[in-house]
Amino acid sequence: MTEPELPERAVNQPGPPPRQLHPLPKGLVELYGLLAVLFVLVPEWMAGGALLGFTGNRQGSNLPAASAAWQKLPELRLAGMGVVELRQLACQLRIPGYARLSRDRLTAVLIRRLKRRKALW
User: Fold this and answer.
1) Contact 106/86 with Cβ under 8 angstroms?
2) What pLDDT score does 106 carry?
3) Based on the structure, what is the number of domains in the chain?
4) Exposed / middle / buried, residue 73 (Cβ in 10 Å: 0-12, 13-18, 19+)
5) Sequence-ordered alpha helix ranges (H) in 23-67
6) Mean pLDDT in runs of 10 for the chain (121 residues)?
7) 58 in a domain, yes or no?
8) Shortest CA distance to 118 belongs to which of 76, 74, 86, 81?
């Protein structure tokens, strides 16, 4: 028995032929653009205007002052630090193997060390 002959196209390109995508009409694309503006951008502008109206009654800085707890509690200070800063602190505290520790593990080790030393760097 011989193998059946395959058409030339099937030999060169396996799989189904690529689908033809029909472009959307220009009017439909413009309608989608208008809907995007109405449902996304307009509420953003309204919210921004409302926030600007609220800040008119405030005095001083727009950012809240740093709480005393952030300065005193080592857990909060460590949470606000980046990984590089955590590793620099671990180096200063002479913690062995700090470079291979993940952020969570390094934070736990630093908290234990700081509580044991009763020092807030």
Assistant:
1) yes
2) 92
3) 2
4) middle
5) 26-36, 42-55
6) 56 73 88 90 85 66 61 81 91 90 92 77 48
7) no
8) 74
Cβ(103)–Cβ(87) below 8 Å? no
Find how far residue 96's CA is from the centre of its chain.
31
Q: Are residues 44 and 78 in the same domain?
A: no
Task: Report phi then psi at 75, rounded to 5.
Answer: -60, -45
| 29: in domain | yes
Domain assignment of residue 15, yes or no = no
Residue found by looking up tokens 């220009």 in the block: 26
The domain in which residue 36 lies consists of 24-51
In a domain, 37, yes or no: yes
Predicted local distance difference test score (pLDDT) of residue 31:
94
**What pLDDT shows up at residue 71?**
66
- What's residue 35's pLDDT? 92
DSSP-derived secondary structure letter, 40: I
